[in-house]
Design goal:
Number of strands: 14
Shape: elongated
CATH class of the largest domain: Alpha Beta
Low-confidence stretches: 1-7, 324-335
Distance between the termini: 55 Å
CATH superfamily of the largest domain: P-loop containing nucleotide triphosphate hydrolases
Strand order of the largest sheet: 6-7-8-3-9-10
Number of domains: 2
Mean pLDDT: 87
Strand content: 25-35%
Bound molecules: adenosine-5'-triphosphate
CATH architecture of the largest domain: 3-Layer(aba) Sandwich
Largest sheet: 6 strands, mixed
Radius of gyration: 24 Å
Structural class: alpha/beta
Order of helices and strands: EEEHEEHEHHHEHEHEEEHEEHEH
Length: 335
Amino acid sequence: MPLDVPPHAALIQVDGLTQDYPGHRALDGVGFAVPAGSITALVGPNGAGKTTLMRCLAALDPPFAGRVRVAGLEVSEAPRAVHRVTGFLQDIFGLYDGLTVEQGLWHAAAARAVPTRDIPERIAWAADAVGLADRFKQKAGSLSRGLRQRLAIAQTMVHRPRVLLLDEPASGLDPESRADLAALFRRLSRDLGTTLVVSSHILAELEDYSTHMLILREGRVVRHAALDASTGTPSRTAAVRLVLRLAAPCPDLATMLEGMSEVRDVDVWADGETVRLSLEDGHDPARRAALLRALVARDVAVCGFDLDRRNLQDVYLDHVRPAATARPTPGKGHP
Ligand SMILES: Nc1ncnc2c1ncn2[C@@H]1O[C@H](COP(=O)(O)OP(=O)(O)OP(=O)(O)O)[C@@H](O)[C@H]1O
């Protein structure tokens, strides 16, 4: 089976993945494709199936049903080959407390079949990447919680895997280390072309470096989208999302907006004074100015008009909150 996938193809391809625990279906027909070199934020409520999915991607648990391919390898047919091209940081990880940082990294590199002659350079690189170069001779058992986390990350990446799967990698890290970790992920993606899948409940952090988001809920994919590099929210072709504030409700506004060919996905909030919409080619300021002129010409009392700067957390909550409190009905008033 080939190790390489064609350029620009999906490095991870999942189809119809179903995974059961005794008496419980943790993943139910999950399917998605992850582009090479991307950083995917894997998010979802507690128990959504994130860890179960990562274990399947890491070829630790064979799928109950469906297919999982990583770097062109079928996980159920070639798990050991998948282990060589992936690095997996589990949410609860173990370290050999009696080994020094250097020994632990050496062991991890040798276990992942790094040639002996390359190991000194690799472990120096990995230790430096996580800021542990000055602790080479310190035993893992004497490291603080955050430093242990950093060592575990270094061990996960020491063989320079093509795919890095990280389950809650920032837990236990101080703010400076979290920022360093975000920078490291960006470097791995940019300089080495590493494909990363990162699970975390801290959405603001994921927003900092993720190129894609995958939302799981009750074992199913409820959203998988590329993120807009400027806003960190799902991108939609050339349209941008705008938010309008009105000084007074305008009863026919939804109908008026829906009649404009360049406007779609109109949401009017129940107060009648807040409106969200998508404007085709709205990245162009002239397009936005034209829409504002058209509204004012029709006597709509616009007192606020701006890009809708919803963040990753807003998008996430839209998809995981119970339906009754979720998104407004397009074009209709809602509670
Ligand atoms: N070994 C197991 N035996 C039985 N059920 C399990 C087992 N491991 C996980 N589950 C169940 O499968 C579902 C998915 O669990 P999983 O750990 O994948 O969720 P998660 O999204 O990673 O959650 P969290 O955000 O809390 O870490 C949960 O309902 C969980 O209780």
